[in-house]
Amino acid sequence: MKPAAEVGKDILSSPNKSEATPARELLRRVFGHQSFRTPQAEVIEHVLAGHDALVLMPTGGGKSLCYQLPALLRPGVAVVVSPLIALMKDQVTQLCALGVRAAVLNSTLSWDEMLDVERSLKKGEFDLIYMAPERLLTERMLQLLEQMPIALFAIDEAHCVSQWGHDFRPEYLGLSVLSQRWPNVPRIALTATATEQTRQEILARLGMPAARSFVTGFDRPNIFYQVAEKDEIRTQLWQFIRHKHRGQSGIVYCASRQRTDDLAAWLVNKGLTALPYHAGLDRETRTRHQQKFQQAPDAVMVATIAFGMGIDKPDIRFVAHVDMPKSLEHYYQETGRAGRDGQAASAWLAYGLSDVLQRQRLFSEATDNPANQQRMVKAFDTMVSFCESIECRRQQLLAHFGQSSEPCGHCDNCLNSDAVQDVSEAAQKMLSAVYRLWRQRGQRFGSGHVIDILRGRTTARVSSLGHDSLSVFGIGSELSVAQWRRLLRRLLSEQMLVLDDEGYGTLALTQASVAVLKGQQHLSMRWG
Ligand code: ADP
Ligand code: ZN
To answer: Which of 141, 197, 302, 527 fits 264 for a cystine, CB–CB 3.0-4.6 Å?
Structure first.
């Protein structure tokens, strides 16, 4: 791959690459854009001056330019570290089409091709070279690069260095070596997703404590956020697509491979162009499905989180989650793939009691690493609160990423703000029932049993245990099972009820329950 179109040559034939062509001129001439977006100009200036930067911009914000332009202006080659082969290839193809001298070094190249690229690299024929971290960190590559001037190191998808994040790649940890071997070469780390904590982690782990952070607004105003109550999930999804996104392209995220396959087949049966995608499919099938998704205007990708990073399809009209994402970062990154063209798009998430009950499973997973477990559970709780909340969705999402804002008026909660009710009394009834049962030590009662008692149902279990004589028996007959389950979910998400530690699903009160029982704290929710 040796692109050398006219434009690229032109830039390089300037007498002094670092001064001769101002960034703005290149922006227009090479990239065809009239003006910089914030904070591109600032980042570029900072990197051109030789400083490190951390760039946080939402997907589609224009991160690439922040290193591609300095790559053309600083002497030497810019080394771009990227986690995905497909991603690198696309970028390089685009750059070559613009006449920029870029190449990729990865495992898809034959031995001869690789040697060829390396030879050109040594001769200084590239402005940008893309590679995966594991290749860059081989001694062979490090030594090769030490023989030539390096313009900068760009570390794309920098959140992959975060051990607690959702895309952790151990290879990224080794990248701190760059600061030792090239202390004077600027490094620029880029990501579309990072909380304050992850930002700190990126800076620390990449060894760039002095880097300046550039953060832009994370709002995606064209996305409509909606959380639906899970009932008959397939039918719900089908209705959502049929009524709101008929004939349009979207992604449906599922938690497991099995669910992905089943749901895709079911949607195909309904007449949709649905395709499964998960790590259990062979590479060929995945590539085929991805290509079809990219090309067909109405394709729906039913996928696990294995799908999505680097997908550059501007007209994805919806992202649906039929299982709850593990964290708000996951959720925001995944939904952020919708509507990159700026046209209206939907983020639809269905969530139910079964999702909340997964918390117990998280406790039993990753027990070998308590800190990790704690983080997973915390991320999960934040996600549950987001689903349960009656506040503006966008406001909560932005707040999570450190940006304050007003209620948006364009999410389900903003549109339904008048359907909120005080449910403190029902909550007290449920908490009392749990308390009465808890006093019957030695027995284990699940949520179904509690609801039976509240509704005054004389099931075999209720009568055999004599629970129909409890004072709470039948005190909640005015509410349906669905309403009680909804309230239970809310109480669990507020930690006003917890499941016991042994995983039998028995409910127990907490400190927070007491305030509600005493009437010191009120609880509101959308009753539906
Ligand atoms: P990111 O990496 O942040 O997801 P990209 O760098 O791929 O985003 O850019 C997203 C899109 O925005 C691309 O199509 C790119 O050409 C375009 N873009 C980037 N910067 C500008 C700009 N200053 N003016 C107009 N379009 C831009
Ligand atoms: Zn809102």
So the answer is: 302
